[in-house]
Model the fold of this input.
Amino acid sequence: MSETESTLPRAVVAALVENHREFLRYVERRVGDRATAEEILQDAFVRSIDHGDEIRESVVGWFYRVLRNAVIDHQRRQAVANRRLEEFAAELASGDSEEIARVACRCVGELATTLKPEYADALRRIEVEGVPVKDYADAAGISASNAGVRIFRAREALRKQVARSCGTCAEHGCLDCSCGG
Done:
């Protein structure tokens, strides 16, 4: 007996599996991207496993509400990410490039190569070469919102790499990098 079967009644699992395609179409129509929709749907399935015994109504109707909430959560996170990107772009635009170059840790470029290739490419194209996110998305064959998510995740991954490599100086501003990177 699998873990899912022990947590969810078979009828619930059968109803969810039977309606998988409809669920995916529902989410994809709302987020505009199949890969993102698949991710949201998978997360909703996983989270629902722990709550299957709470269902007191139609499984399908209940799961559509779960999906609606998951899409809303995704859109909220996306809005926050977009605001952060806009703030970062405004911050870059307001400072002069010499100061940014002086402040930036010299090891960041090297650390970027340790990231997933698509993250390293997004950082190089958008942050270093100054390609607009929409143009990067077109060139990469992805939606602009997906490109925004990718660059946000790339920045977060790079931030973690810098913190691992440079230690506490990364938290307070890597003004005089002595990590030897």
